[in-house]
Amino acid sequence: MEEEFDELKSQNSFDIKALAFRALNYWYLFVITLGIAFVVTYFYNKRLERIYRIESLISIKEEQNPFFSSSMNLTFNWGGASDKVETIKTTLKSRAHNENVVRFLQSYIHYKVDGAYRLEDIHTNAPFVASLDEAYPQLINTPIKIVFKDEQNYTASINFTTSEAFSGLKYKQNEAVAIVPEGEVYTGDFVMNTEAKTPYFKFALTPRADIQIKIGQPYYVYLTSLNSEISKYRSIGVSLKVQGASMLVLSLTGPNRAILADYLNMTTEILTAKQLEEKNQFATNTLAFIDKMIVGVEDSLRKDEQKLKQYKQDNKVFNPTAKGEEVFAKLNQYSIEKNAYVLELEYYKLLENYLNKSTDYRSLPAPASSGIDDPNIVNNVSKIVGLSIRRAKLSETVKNDIFFKEIDQDIEATKRVLLENVKTARASTNIDIANVETRTARANAEFRKLPEEEQQLFNIERSYKISEASYTLLLEKKNEAGIVKAANVSDVKVIDSAKDLGQGSISPNTKKNYSVALFMGLLIPLGFVFIVTLLDNNINTPEDIKKLSNIPILGIVSRSRGETNLVVFERSKSSVAESFRGIRSSLQYIYKNLEKDKTKTVLITSSVSGEGKTFCSTNIASVFSLTGKKTILVGLDLRKPKIFGDFGITNEIGVVNYLIGQKEMEEVIQHTKYDNLDVITSGPIPPNPSELLISQQLEEFIKELKLRYDYIVLDTPPLGLVSDALDLIAHADATIYMVRQDYSKKAMLNIINDKYKKGEVNNISFVFNDYRQKAKYGYGYGYGYGYGYGYGNYGNGYHEEERRSLLSRLTKPFKRK
């Protein structure tokens, strides 16, 4: 059982070596498929649109105003560096920001020309610029063909057969409208620098000064939707240059390097301006607050100045007494102090009302504008303004309230703290005002002792001094705010701007495509070879026979390309003839146990017709006759006789005539032109061939032949088709079972294997016929069975081989094996 299992296993195992050599034999398939794959990939790569990647580098840094000081506390910072970076990253990908960039660049206007495989975008290389009426419905996603007749006149045309649905867009409102074509093609003539108005577009073309118009060449104006352009550029890549560093790499991919570079540079330019604007917001709010207060103070100052001048002229009072000067100085100082405290109270009132009634705190003025330097109020005002700006920026990109929850909580907490700060500061300021008023009351008591005219003068002058001091203070704060605003710089700094330097494309990946082509070019023929090998049930090599059967191989016969089967006689020096001599020698080992002078009999059979049984019988008989031994070749394939044609004899009389008693032995034996070789053909096809072959007459027939000949070669019917050969084996001293390369099926050996295992047949051997030393099997001639092909390559020069033309050798791989 174990032996049978091993045999079965060997039969079912896949021969990797055979697959490899078979693949080598089909080299032309690999050449063809690889050639096709590479050619297809070449044109595929050429047709694909080239995609490029452009980058720019910016840094994000909280730049402190160089004019910032404790007395000019108008600047503020919010968040840390990492928060700033994340805010910038979010802004760059926001719809609002990218819409500003797209509208500024008018990225939805494309200028194209005919390319090899598609319309190519020429961007600023177009010889004209289209100025759209953005309130008018413009046809989108359909090319408008422009052909210039001369420098000023052009024809615009639209082909409406490319689609069934067309749409327009009012860019100003970003409002889509339906457009219904009036025909399949629209054509109109227009003039440069003049607005062209049609049902499908409304724009004016103006020439570029540095680019020459090519007369007759088609140009195309191709408009896309605002939303599609914004969506395309919102995919901008934003990543940290180095982890932990506040440097961002901005990147865009697309088919036109110049467009990408322009967009990246403009997006950073707008971002820089926006950041500076936000940074100046506090100073801007303060300037607006101061300007509003200056208007009232300036008016009061003008009136007090006029009143003072008029009083001095009317009363001729110009030199107050020393006592009056002293009292006036005190009252003036106290008034200025009180006025400063009142200004603080006004700011606290404004701040408290703003915090209680508003939800947007971006417009809060700086506390320093009212002379407030309380660090708690200054810091918390800065913080709440910063949080409000962050929230406003976030609202441009995020619509879900869940993202505002944390920042709203921070704003609310800061507002509560700030209100408490205001309450405390107001109480403290009221105390300060009460102290000033007490000192003012004592000074007023002294003041009332002065002469009436002097009191009137001091009252008017004091009012003037107070207005002048307030005006001076406001001007000072305004100048401070202006200096801070002018000195502010954006937190965004461009390190490397985007440039079109002729960068190579990132897509298509030609190396990868060619690698895929190489892989597929090898895989397809290899898969074909694998399937052929897997489904191949033919016996291809002597090794296959060894795996399938324990019956020994007597010899190997290579393919004969002669015109007749008489290879031994016609081409005696050929390798085929030599192989039969080797089989003859091998048969002697089988006959060694027989009596020396006894007639030796060999029977040749096979599984099916066409395996070379008659060819082998003829040549084995021929090699026996060449030794000087009387040899006869007997055709016992009564159903399909063949052996007579090669010898130039007829099949009119043969074995059948003898077996049915019509003819005697002498009458059925036919002599050939070759010495020591006679032939008995099968004769007419009988109705009962099987019965004749197992009859008593056949035994007498064989006995009589043994009396006349030294060697008897029996050509019998195929064993796999009829059972005649099994009945005839008993008359043979040796049996040869023919197996033909690429023809005999593996399953055909089952019958003879079974007979061999049961001991029903003895002295049987295989002859491997029609063998070609082909690379697809990976085996040469060196098996050493008999003496036929034990020579391997050493037979070169000793055998007469067929010569073939150059054409036949070149076309051999393409011929059917």
Features:
single chain; 817 residues; alpha+beta; eight-stranded mixed sheet; 24 helices; 47% helix; disordered N terminus
Q: Classify the helix fraction into a percent range.
A: 40-55%
Low-confidence stretches: 1-12, 64-82, 775-799
Strand arrangement, major sheet:
17-24-23-18-22-19-21-20
Alpha-carbon distance between the termini? 38 Å
Tell me the Rg in angstroms: 56 Å
Strand content: 15-25%
The major beta sheet can be summarized as:
8 strands, mixed
The overall strand count is 24
SS field, number of helical segments: 24
Q: Shape, please? A: rod-shaped
Summarize the structure in words:
- With 817 residues, this protein is of the alpha+beta class.
- The chain is built from 24 helices and 24 strands.
- Helix 16 crosses helix 17 (613-625).
- The longest helix has 43 residues, at 405-447.
- It is rod-shaped.
- The model is unreliable at 1-12, 64-82 and 775-799 (pLDDT under 50).
Outline the secondary-structure elements:
Layout: H1 2-12, H2 16-25, H3 27-47, E1 52-60, H4 81-92, H5 95-105, E2 109-114, E3 119-121, E4 128-132, E5 138-140, E6 144-148, E7 153-159, E8 166-170, E9 175-179, E10 185-191, E11 195-197, E12 202-207, E13 218-223, H6 226-233, E14 237-240, E15 247-254, H7 257-279, H8 281-315, H9 322-357, H10 375-395, H11 405-447, H12 452-487, E16 492-496, H13 510-535, H14 542-548, E17 553-558, H15 567-570, H16 575-591, E18 600-606, H17 613-625, E19 631-635, H18 655-659, H19 665-668, E20 670-671, E21 677-680, H20 689-693, H21 696-708, E22 711-715, H22 724-728, E23 734-740, H23 749-758, E24 764-771, H24 806-810
Parallel strand pairs: 17-24, 18-22, 18-23, 19-21, 19-22, 23-24
Antiparallel strand pairs: 1-15, 1-16, 2-3, 2-13, 4-12, 5-8, 6-7, 6-13, 7-10, 8-9, 11-12, 14-15, 20-21
Helix pairs in contact: 2-13, 3-13, 5-6, 5-7, 8-12, 9-11, 9-12, 10-11, 16-17
